Amino acid sequence: MHIVIMGCGRVGSTLAHILEDKGHSVAIIDQSPEAFRRLRSGFRGRRITGFGFDREVIAEAGIERASAFVAVSSGDNSNIISARVARETFGVDNVVARIYDPRRAEVYQRLGIPTVATVRWTADQILRRLLPEGAEPLWRDPTGAVVLAELDSGHLWVGEKVGELEEHAGTRVAFLSRMGEALVPERDTVIQDGDIVHIMAGADDLERVNAAVATRNGEDA
Q1: What whole-number distance in Å separates Cα of residue 134 and Cα of residue 206?
Q2: DSSP bridge pairs for 27
Q3: Measured torsion, CA atoms of residues 200, 203, 205, 206, in degrees rounded to the nearest 10
Q4: Residue scoring higher pLDDT (29 or 181)
Q5: 221 with 191: CB under 8 angstroms?
Q6: Nearest to 210, CA basis, from 157, 163, 159, 141
């Protein structure tokens, strides 16, 4: 595929290298020529100086033949405007915009522009490390209603089956982290000591799930 990236910061340059290594052609746009210094010397993609929401600039980047457009500059407005230009003017279906304000991210998601709200994601990651007890979100959908959360199963659940935990807590186990590896469990998969359980649940259900998992057969975990 041909992919156009707006923003040659740390995220944009990393994406450009990964995509190129996977065999895709890449054009990257930044208003500052100095930003292209982040690209490795062997980068074969195009470097275009300008604004990603300028139609002539993204046309020069090959937007008319692009399969995807990514906006990861440091400005919310620039990212969302350029994403809309790519989609609405040039007909690129696969667009993603980085948005720092999670409230804006929810609005644009409803308008059909997939977004990554970095502020909410970063806050969730920090909270998960500050408050390790119970379930803290690893990921949430743009509306904030559904979360992927990491849950310490507790010693009471070691030796029990995943299906039993699901029934007891009224939740869905997405995967287990075991010895540094991810495992998609069956209902009869037995939880081992050291396992980290990842669940999919409604955001409003986390407190209830925490309380349920902390007890089993009347015992307090």
Answers
A1: 8
A2: 4, 46
A3: 80
A4: 29
A5: no
A6: 157
